[in-house]
Every structure is written in C-alpha cells, then in structure tokens.
C-alpha cells in the first residue's frame, strides 16, 4: 500500500466514525479519531491478520475506530455497522468481541490490554510462532498500575513480538493529563522497563510503518497524536471526549473529511 | 491438599500439551515438580496477579488451557474485575486456584483470609466453584473443569479432611448418613470435619442426622430434590454468611416452596475480629463450633 492509500484508508475510517457517532449519539469520537492513522497502517499494511488475536485495543472507549476500520475492510458488514450503539447491537460503545468478526478482546475498563498481549506472546513462544502482537493504549490509561505490571513482565521476559503503541494525545477524561496525574516522560518509563522506545508523529503513516519495523525487543511506540484529529473544531478540544454531533457539526465534519478526499 | 492438586496438574499437563500453569510467585516447595517436568509451560509471573489473569486470557485466546495459582484472596478478590471482564466474558478455559480458603492462614491475619471469595465468585455469571475436601474431590473437580470449557474456581484449603466413614461421591456432593433424615447439615471444605463431628455427637444423643458435603457450589440442581418440606436444615460455611452458599440454598428452597421446619446459616459474621489465631480458633470467634451446631438441633 502506498502512502496515499494509507491516507485514503484513514480518511474513510474517520468518515465511518463520524457517521456512526452522529447516528448513535454516542461519545468518545475524539479518542477514536486520535488513533485512526495508526489503525490505517496496522490493517492497511497487513501487519494485523484479522483472523487471529494479534491486535488489542486497550483503550476500549475508542472502539468505534476499530469497528470503522473493519467496516472499511469489509470484515464487518454495513448492516451490522449501522446498528452501532443501538438496542440489540453486537457493537457496544466500548470495543466488544462477542460475535464481532476481527475483534478478539473486549475492553473498556482501562489498563488490561498489555497483559492479555503478554499471554498471546507467551503462547506464540510455546508454539514457536513469530507473529507480532499489537496493543494500543492511551496515555491517560497509563495511570493504571496494571499497565506497569504488564510492562514489567514484557520487558523482563524480553517479549520481542510485543508492540505497545501509546496514543499520546495528552488529554484524558477530565482534561490535560499533565494537570490530572502527571506521568513524566512515558518514553523514559517504558525504556526503564526494558522496552525499545521510539517517538513519532502518530498521524504520519510512513513514520508509523517505519517505527513498527523496529524489532530488537519489546517495542513501545509513543505516537504523538491529536485528539479529534482530522476535524478542526474537535482537535485538542476535550469537549469531544463526551460530546456527540448535531446536524450542523455533522455536516461540517463531513465537509472537512471530504476536503481531505479532494 | 496441595500435594494432590500438584499431582493432578502434572497428570493433566502430561495428557495435554496445550495446558499451561501460572503462579504469582507462590507454591514454594510444592510447584518445583511442575516446573521441572514442564519448563516450557510453567511460568512464575512474579507478584503481579492482574498481569497473570490478563496473560491467562491471552493464552486462552490462542487455544491454551490455563491453571493459575495464588493463595488467600489474591487469586480472587484482588483480580475480580479481570476474572469477570477477561476470563468469563471471553469464555476462557481457565482454572482459578486459591491455595488457602477460609481461615487456612489464620495466624497470618485479616489480609490472608479468604472468607468472601465464595460470595463474590458466586455472584459472577458462567463460573463454577469447586470446594474439594480430599484427594478424590480434587481430582473430580479438576477433571470436571478440564472437560467443561469454562472458567472455574478451585478453592483449596491447606488441610484435607480425614474421613473415616464410608463416603459416596454423587453429582457434586457426598452424603454421610441417610439423606432422607429430616435433620440435615450442608457444608463444604474442611469445616465439613466439624459437621461430621456434629453428626456423630447427635447420634450419641439419639438424634438422627445426615451431612451433605458439597464439592461443587454453583450447580446444585441435583441436590434440591432431597431437601424436603419439614426438614431442619443447618448450613455451615467458612465463608461470609452474607451472600454465601447457605443463603443461596435457603432462597432456592423458598423459590421451590420447600417449607423448612427450621433453618440456620452458620457462616463468617460481618464483624472483623481484631485478633489472629489458627483456623479452629478463628472459626470459633465466628460461632463456627460443634457446640453451636448441636444446639441448633437440640433447640
């Protein structure tokens, strides 16, 4: 896939996200837009096989981004996707695996994705399987102690197939992370846990792809992202952690994404 | 109890190369045999129970079966959310093992009492709870889990129950005495020794009774036909009375319109004892004594 194709895939993912959030009046749109480029590379470059437990979204509230990616790839049908967040839907607001093709782990209570990935890495070691295992965690999510239990294990046991991608958008539920529970330098923390760490622009598809190609240890990619990326009035505006779209904001958001198409 | 557990772990791991064993740095002096025989499938994950449960889920997602171990309330209360969200919701074939149910670690203090584990685990959906009391019931429990394809909780206690009476093994429970006696004692785990002592002393008082020892604490459907209107029922458990098995059985009797003549649930009270002591001492502080049990039937 060429760079322009990643861009198109990311834009299409964002369009699906915006449409689903508008139709459902759900929340967390900005969190989903934050990771759309990362998902475009993981799936667009076939780094993740959607038939295997190879990718986990630990920050489950951005689940619509995963559903949108799978919708764009044709793994989730439009019929199913259109039910998102509705009564009787299999697609909950936090990413859910039950009967959802391409999703293997339900999350929502933060802090657990890396530990599950550790288990898959260990299983792959037993099975002599070299598949890389990807987890996206939020920077706010790194407040959770369970993140560091899991990181300690992965680093100490040199789980080289593990790739942790931190969606470093600096915002969490109630505001800027540095004003809520300052984490210091996330990169230094993962380095201290024996990870190889690279810091990149989390919206630069080439940079994401190149970072993933690093493979000399458990890898942590600190992806500097913009919460709400792609829609000007949502970018770095934490209102959109919870707020949903009305007719006007929906039209404006689509217009901005259509502009990206052009 | 742990010795029999280890033997059965080795047996199952020998049979099934997909079976993996995790411990959160407990089992010193007991688990070396597992580690030595199956070094590729034994993992001491360190004192990090949350990571251990997540790992169990990840292993299970790839088709592995997992047994994980800790003691006291570290494999249950400490990680109850991970058990619910990861293991149960993902239908993981995982056996959660606690090597110290009830007041097994009485002298070690409140942090080491597993006295709410049964209540909390029983409140979760789609889980089975096993409370074996000897080698046979450990083997039965582990085999039942192994063929069940679901999450189960195995509550071990440090001491096995030495029973001299002939014992039968029915579907999820054993009976000492005639099950049609109107005086029935239902119990599980090592406190069943006190139930049996009660039964014996009642015999000396010419009061007939029977003891039903549960091995399985959730799926009790086969037990209820034996509970009859007019029974005097004493339920004993080394777990919180609140939300425990006793309350579950009594409420089931009410739902099924079994009108018990007399009923009493003896469990751990909701008063925290500010002292420590051995298992029997701690039980006695909560009224879990043979004298109290006999008094119920003499009243």
Structural account:
The complex is a heterodimer of chains A (262) and B (299). Chain A has 262 residues and is of the alpha/beta class. Chain A has 11 helices and 7 strands. Chain A has helices spanning 3-24, 29-34, 36-44, 63-72, 78-81, 113-126, 145-156, 177-180, 186-192, 205-212, 247-261; strands spanning 55-57, 133-138, 162-168, 171-172, 175-176, 196-201, 219-224. The mean pLDDT of chain A is 96. With 299 residues, chain B is α/β, with parallel strands linked by helices. A 6-stranded parallel β-sheet of chain B has the order 2-1-3-4-6-5, with helices on both faces. In chain B, strands 7-9-8-10-11 form a 5-stranded mixed β-sheet, sandwiched between helices. In chain B, α6 links the parallel β5 and β6. Classes of the chains: A alpha/beta (262), B alpha/beta (299). Chains A and B meet through α6 and α7 of A and α3 and α4 of B.
- What is the subunit arrangement here? heterodimer
> What is the arithmetic mean of pLDDT of chain B?
95
Taken in chain order, the helices and strands of chain B follow as: HEHEHEHEHEHEEEHEEHEHH
Low-confidence stretches of chain A: none
Task: Offer a quick outline of the entry.
With 262 residues, chain A is an alpha/beta fold. Helices cover 42% and strands 12% of the residues of chain A. A five-stranded parallel beta sheet of chain A has the order 1-2-3-7-6, sandwiched between helices. In chain A, strands 4-5 form a two-stranded antiparallel sheet.
